[in-house]
């Protein structure tokens, strides 16, 4: 595993596996810009989001509520999907108990939510990351955050050692989230309020890009709009077929 360098050197990318099965679309990628989420605060400069997509859509239903109101989270393909450890490490924090919020794809529904951003930030990690897990990847950092898990599904406890691919919980919509998705970031400190973000790369995944091009990537960072799916290490380039067209609906 690559890790962050010491204070005198630049941060080296931390290599991760995708934390899910099936096809997910990339949003807020550091391949497009840094800081990927518009801020260097909270250790989020190189964070990335993934939303499950099936048959070109992120949700099974699209109706008037999609454009005018809030939506139930169980219509989204990501909701309740198993979220797996992208790397091995020791659990330093595992937060549960935050409610899953209604989804807000509608610009109208998002206005009030945006205005309440400051109040969520004042609640600290729970208000921003919701139900989440923080892993120490190398006995003193860097630290990996897996955020927005479903209430009541966090499956690990502080002090526990986890391995790559171990279940951490299920995808939810807790914390600072407008629809079910998984958020990953790596930091140089376990406290997001003092941490600096660390670059990441992903290993062994199939990608279908927005222009339709497909590729088996051994090490890279997918861009916004890419649809990705994890593959086993050593999978031949011609041995993995795509799982359907990309979608952002």
UniProtKB/TrEMBL annotation:
InterPro entries on file: Cell_wall_metabolism_enzyme (IPR050570), Dup_hybrid_motif (IPR011055), M23ase_b-sheet_dom (IPR016047)
Domain of life from the UniProt record: Bacteria
Species of provenance: Micromonospora solifontis
Record-annotated M23ase beta-sheet core domain positions: 125-192
Protein name stated in the entry: M23 family metallopeptidase
Pfam families: Peptidase_M23
Region of interest called Disordered, as start-end residue ranges on this chain: 230-249
């Amino acid at each position: 595993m690559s890790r962050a360098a010491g204070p005198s050197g630049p941060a080296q990318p931390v290599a991760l596996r995708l934390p899910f099965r099936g096809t997910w679309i990339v949003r807020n990628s550091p391949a497009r810009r840094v800081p990927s989420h518009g801020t260097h605060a909270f250790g989020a400069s190189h964070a990335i989001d993934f939303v499950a997509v099936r048959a070109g859509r992120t949700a099974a239903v699209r109706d008037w509520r999609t454009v005018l109101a809030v939506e139930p989270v169980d219509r989204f393909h990501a909701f309740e999907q198993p979220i797996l450890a992208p790397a091995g490490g020791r659990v330093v924090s595992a937060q549960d108990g935050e409610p899953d919020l209604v989804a807000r794809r509608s610009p109208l529904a998002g206005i009030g939510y945006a205005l309440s951003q400051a109040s969520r930030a004042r609640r600290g990690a729970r208000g921003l990351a919701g139900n989440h897990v923080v892993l120490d990847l190398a006995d003193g950092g860097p630290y990996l955050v897996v955020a927005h898990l479903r209430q009541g599904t966090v499956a690990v406890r502080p002090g526990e050692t986890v391995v790559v691919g171990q279940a951490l919980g299920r995808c939810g919509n807790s914390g600072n989230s407008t629809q079910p998705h998984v958020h990953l970031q790596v930091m140089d400190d376990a406290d997001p309020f003092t941490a600096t973000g660390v670059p990441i790369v992903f290993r062994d995944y199939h990608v279908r890009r927005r222009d339709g091009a497909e590729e088996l990537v051994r090490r890279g960072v997918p861009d916004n709009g890419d649809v990705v799916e994890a593959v086993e290490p050593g999978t031949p380039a011609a041995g993995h077929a795509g799982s359907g067209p990309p979608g952002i609906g």
